[in-house]
Structure formats: structure tokens, C-alpha cells
Design brief:
The chain is an all-alpha fold. The protein contains 4 helices and no strands.
């Protein structure tokens, strides 16, 4: 590790893998929600109580960010697989785009969700 100078591209490559792992856990929560919705009002109210709590909302916010970041980083990797974006300035632009875009899309999704009444 002493040979390499850490770059944003290297760090986000690791974050891309970590968000992939986080999406597995978040998908279990999504499955819990779907099973509860199919099981009836009592089961569904338990899930809603959890997701409506501060901890539940933080987890859901983190899941949303992981999903958006992983998607944008996947697009970045796809562009690289096509053979584009390897120049230093292009690589940096794609990396910053994935980082800022993931955060911006997450905030936008939550603003829209609250605006249409999903945050009640």
C-alpha cells in the first residue's frame, strides 16, 4: 500500500463493492416489507413502525444512497468496459459524477417521496 497514492477512483471502487454488499442486506428489508404487506395489516404495521422510526429512516436513507451510488458506479464501470473514460480528466469526471450524482439522486428521491406524502 505504500507504493500507491490513494485517489478518489480507488476509494470509490472499494465503496462500490461495499454498497453491493449493503444492497444484499437492504434487499432483505425489502423482502420483509413485501412479505408483511402480503401477510396482512398487523404484520405490515410492524414493518411500518420500524421504517417510520429514526433508525429505520436512516437505514432506508442509507439503502437509497447505496442503490443510487452503486447504479452510477456501475454505469461508470460500463463506460470503462466500452473502452472510454480512461484519460485522467475523464476518469476524475466520471468518479466525481458518480459520487455527487449518488448523493444528489438520493436527496431528490427523498424530497419527492416526502412531497407526495410518503414521509408521513
Amino acid at each position: 500500500m505504500q507504493v500507491y497514492r490513494w485517489t478518489l477512483t480507488m476509494a470509490l471502487s472499494i465503496v462500490h463493492r461495499a454498497t453491493g454488499i449493503a444492497l444484499y442486506v437492504g434487499t432483505l428489508l425489502l423482502a420483509w416489507w413485501l412479505i408483511a404487506a402480503a401477510s396482512g395489516p398487523a404484520a405490515y404495521s410492524h414493518v411500518q413502525a420500524f421504517t417510520g422510526s429514526i433508525i429505520g429512516r436512516l437505514i432506508m436513507f442509507g439503502y437509497t444512497w447505496a442503490l443510487m451510488h452503486h447504479m452510477l458506479s456501475g454505469i461508470r464501470h460500463f463506460v470503462w468496459d466500452l473502452g472510454y473514460g480512461f484519460k485522467a480528466n475523464e476518469r476524475e469526471a466520471l468518479t466525481w459524477g458518480a459520487l455527487i450524482g449518488g448523493i444528489a439522486l438520493t436527496v431528490l428521491i427523498w424530497i419527492i417521496a416526502y412531497a407526495i406524502g410518503g414521509g408521513r
